[in-house]
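# nightly structure sweep
# worker-07 picked up a monomer target from the shared queue
# config: single-sequence mode, recycle default, output format = structure tokens
# input follows
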Amino acid sequence: MERILENIGILGAGRVATVLASKLAGAGHAITIGTRDPERAAARWSGAQVELRDHAETARRAAIVINASPGDTSVERLGALREELKGKILIDVSNATLRGQDGLPGGLLYPNGSVAERLQEALPETAVVKTLNTMLFTVMADPTSLRVSPTAFLSGNDENAKAVVRRLLGDLGWPADWIEDLGDITTARGPEAVALLVPSVVRKRGFAPFAIALAR
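# output follows
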């Protein structure tokens, strides 16, 4: 089967964006990084060769956009890009949490919902797909590095969009049988609640790679 290469925009220029951009660019996709200050970000960028633009231009030129920005401000930031994201696939890998005193997650920002649901409500003409938020960022593009097979969960209302995301997960190194489709966008609540485990895990083990695995 012929591989399909995509124009992918990643909103955010931090560790998550660096890991995803490097692996997806290595798979042949064209990557644009969206940031508030492209010139400053370009001077600090250490990942694969990519283009850096502002958020609006990144969303406008991409067919698929990955939200790698902080989840606690994602709804406001991406809601302002409603026209630019119209008709696109938005992959949300964020977690919307309150910050504890030590900088680790201190609680869920949307305890009776999820940031993915809020994004879908704010962007009704965009297909939001939740995935990759139940692991340390390094595992997102290197799942076989763990001793136990991790699980990448999928949540979203659009089946075609989820099929595209499955294909991109394959390019990130995820075998098909490690991907678990939970259902519509409301099912993102469970994976997002996993963020409550993170402080205890990090305090116990440090920032060593980890992920949630669904035993079958």
